[in-house]
Amino acid sequence: MSVADTSAWGALTEHADSIATRSIRELFAADSGRGAAMSVRAGDLYIDYSKHRINGETLRLLHLLARETHLFEQRDAMLRGDRINVSENRSVLHTALRRRRDEKLFLDGHDVVQDVHAVLDAMGDFTDRVRDGSWTGADGGAITTVVNIGIGGSDLGPVMVHRALREYCDGPDVRFVSNVDPSDLLSTLADLDPATTLFVVVSKTFSTFETMANAHAARRWLVDELGEDAVGKHFVAVSTNADLVAEFGIEPSNVFGFWDWVGGRYSVGSAVGLSVMAAIGRERFAEFLEGFRIVDEHFATAPIQSNAPVILGLLSVWYASVLDADARAVLPYANDLARLPAYLQQLAMESNGKSVRGDGKPVGVPTGEVIWGEAGTNGQHAFHQLLHQGTRLVPADFIGFARAGQDVASSDGGTAMHEVLTANMFAQSRVLAFGKTRVEVIADGVDPNLAPHKVMPGDRPSTTILAPELSPSTLGQIIALYEHQVFVQGAVWGIDSFDQWGVELGKASAVELAPALASGGGPSDAMDSSTRELVAAFWKERA
Ligand SMILES: O=P(O)(O)OC[C@H]1O[C@](O)(CO)[C@@H](O)[C@@H]1O
């Protein structure tokens, strides 16, 4: 059944008209306990969802929507390993990656938790050796730099986590190459010595064009300097495709596997996190996985009223589908989380940027969200103007931390910079929600002619996620929170959130066009007129 055919859907669309008559300011005025009532804890995360365009009736109807779309049955099906990725006939078990060693989860009669821990042990042994210098390069020296080559889910997770846990990195320098733009690889290798460099080629399929192009170029760079025999000491792989890895020349003992039941964008807790483990060590990586597990447990067991991913997932459906919001801003008030918006773009948009349901029928309501953002306070000096006074509805997620890893005094010498940062975060969500009326502006002595420019409409929704500190555990908790939020959206919409057919045609088209841009190529009459002219312009410029 389409979400649009549920009784909750009809009631929510009617309810949207009535909630539109009451601003967030009015909703707060009517209930002095709203801030406490509309907040929830998941593990170490305190999540405030009070500054939304909702009241008790909205939540009641969203809960009804969850029940009518069998959200909890779908959650349980995912967690026990049913093949809920219907278009690829696969289980979806990234949650198995964070199960404890003594747990069991049988898939087709086989305990996958044992497999997960066997790979984690192998990753731990390998990264211990890289970190303590006993894994040596071809000339007997220790490895000082690890270069992760991958793209999409084989890059965004490791990049984001490595940067987020910067203060925990005490292993080799780790760098990332993803783009097929040669400048990415060349600038990364420019100051490196092949003798002390280790490449981790990460590709679930081991056939992604960009990754293979970069891996082969890196291989040539290494072999030119150290010879063919050096490859085994300087290349390891993370993949589910053992045959193609062997063809590349990487020894089976240097391959860290994962499984078809881990989607690329859900894979940072698998062997895809190998370079992160090299940077932070196996103990910290275990804490990272434990963070995920804490929120997995919460998602699996908390009642609907206090289940954070369920609440956040239903709220995002409310905005995206009922209130027609196209976008959501993700605003981490932590510079080390600067890559979180990019990571969440893939997680949310590759998962739910779809218009048909798992059964191939149209979803029938607007789906997906354009996720974007920037670390605070930088965003305040760029796009917050539109958030505050523009005409578009853009719900925002603020993410902050009570403690900074390192802190310094602010300009007044008394306040710490982290306190200023957090004051900015709280101020932004407050101003977005409550705004400033004309009466208040004029009471401040503003010229009435200028007042319209200074009125802040308010009524701009946001969620605030506050954690004690940015640590491996809290980072795992935040990622799992978002993973499950995305699951909830997809389940309500009836979407298969775990395939990505939409990116395939573009890849095939690039392969088809490549000869026209390679030497001896050029425009052809078979091309559409725009592509033909672009190819012609490309060749003209090259000449
Ligand atoms: O790990 P692979 O197989 O190289 O794929 C990389 C990325 O390409 C995609 O398949 C499509 O962009 C992503 O889902 C995936 O994360």
From TrEMBL:
<keyword id="KW-0312">Gluconeogenesis</keyword>
<feature type="active site">
    <location>
        <position position="507"/>
    </location>
</feature>
<comment type="pathway">
    <text>Carbohydrate degradation; glycolysis; D-glyceraldehyde 3-phosphate and glycerone phosphate from D-glucose: step 2/4.</text>
</comment>
<dbReference type="InterPro" id="IPR023096">
    <property type="entry name" value="G6P_Isomerase_C"/>
</dbReference>
<feature type="active site">
    <location>
        <position position="381"/>
    </location>
</feature>
<dbReference type="InterPro" id="IPR035482">
    <property type="entry name" value="SIS_PGI_2"/>
</dbReference>
<dbReference type="GO" id="GO:0004347">
    <property type="term" value="F:glucose-6-phosphate isomerase activity"/>
</dbReference>
<dbReference type="GO" id="GO:0006096">
    <property type="term" value="P:glycolytic process"/>
</dbReference>
<dbReference type="GO" id="GO:0005829">
    <property type="term" value="C:cytosol"/>
</dbReference>
<dbReference type="GO" id="GO:0048029">
    <property type="term" value="F:monosaccharide binding"/>
</dbReference>
<comment type="function">
    <text>Catalyzes the reversible isomerization of glucose-6-phosphate to fructose-6-phosphate.</text>
</comment>
<dbReference type="InterPro" id="IPR018189">
    <property type="entry name" value="Phosphoglucose_isomerase_CS"/>
</dbReference>
<comment type="pathway">
    <text>Carbohydrate biosynthesis; gluconeogenesis.</text>
</comment>
<keyword id="KW-0963">Cytoplasm</keyword>
<protein>
    <recommendedName>
        <fullName>Glucose-6-phosphate isomerase</fullName>
        <ecNumber>5.3.1.9</ecNumber>
    </recommendedName>
</protein>
<dbReference type="GO" id="GO:0097367">
    <property type="term" value="F:carbohydrate derivative binding"/>
</dbReference>
<keyword id="KW-0413">Isomerase</keyword>
<dbReference type="InterPro" id="IPR035476">
    <property type="entry name" value="SIS_PGI_1"/>
</dbReference>
<dbReference type="GO" id="GO:0051156">
    <property type="term" value="P:glucose 6-phosphate metabolic process"/>
</dbReference>
<dbReference type="GO" id="GO:0006094">
    <property type="term" value="P:gluconeogenesis"/>
</dbReference>
<feature type="active site" description="Proton donor">
    <location>
        <position position="350"/>
    </location>
</feature>
<keyword id="KW-0324">Glycolysis</keyword>
<dbReference type="InterPro" id="IPR046348">
    <property type="entry name" value="SIS_dom_sf"/>
</dbReference>
<dbReference type="InterPro" id="IPR001672">
    <property type="entry name" value="G6P_Isomerase"/>
</dbReference>
<comment type="similarity">
    <text>Belongs to the GPI family.</text>
</comment>
<dbReference type="Pfam" id="PF00342">
    <property type="entry name" value="PGI"/>
</dbReference>
